[in-house]
Amino acid sequence: MMLRVDDLTLARGGVPVLTGLSLALVPGQALILRGPNGAGKTTLLRSIAGLQPPLSGRIEGAQDRVAYAAHADGLKAMLSVTENLAFWARIFGTSDITPALDAFDLHGLADRLAGTLSAGQKRRLGLARLLVTGRPLWVLDEPTISLDTGAVALFAAALRAHLARGGAALIATHIDLGIEAQVLDITPFRASAATRAGASDEAFL
Ligand SMILES: Nc1ncnc2c1ncn2[C@@H]1O[C@H](COP(=O)(O)OP(=O)(O)OP(=O)(O)O)[C@@H](O)[C@H]1O
């Protein structure tokens, strides 16, 4: 088992968003989260990434196995593409950034400052970071935003390779990635106002 989530209740800003949600992921599996805007997909991913604790329920198998790609790319604007990847490689204890440059076609941009990249180029670099983490559980929030058709295909290929290596992925996306994946619609797990709690849960916005 890669990840097990049991009977989670999650809140944002003290307001319950999801309740009674359970899911499991095994190595090699991708699970796509669906649900309308505001349903709680980001809230769920943030909790699994360890950025906010659940109000109740259990998350097993995440901790230091997660590589999280949020809406923001989290780039160091004054470092080059290569320096950004090398920085993360050092943080995560890996060394070879070449596969990440290859996978997201970044060689031509290797010496460019990240802050000077276009939105789609930044997103490619942000996603390339996943590969240098060496972590098995990718938790991805709308990973294809700003990507053109070719870059979406690069991402799908990187994801397929990750799954083939025994990795797993939990992905909130509104588009069809063209990969074999199960789909979980979180709409039935939306919390009602009756489960409102007062506890603050925002460690990071
Ligand atoms: N920082 C915050 N403080 C209070 N409420 C928040 C905060 N961030 C999000 N929310 C609310 O929490 C609920 C769930 O938001 P969340 O971002 O998890 O939804 P989502 O399914 O990812 O939506 P989208 O498809 O629009 O990205 C929404 O009602 C949203 O308005």
TrEMBL record:
Residues 3-205 form the ABC transporter domain. The keyword DNA damage does not apply. It comes from the Bacteria. PANTHER family: ABC TRANSPORTER I FAMILY MEMBER 1. SMART domains: AAA (SM00382). GO terms for molecular function: ATP binding. This is Heme ABC exporter ATP-binding protein CcmA. InterPro entries: AAA+_ATPase (IPR003593), ABC_transporter-like_ATP-bd (IPR003439), ABC_transporter-like_CS (IPR017871), ABC_transptr_haem_export_CcmA (IPR005895), P-loop_NTPase (IPR027417). Keywords: ATP-binding, Cytochrome c-type biogenesis, Membrane, Nucleotide-binding, Translocase, Transport. It comes from Sulfitobacter porphyrae.
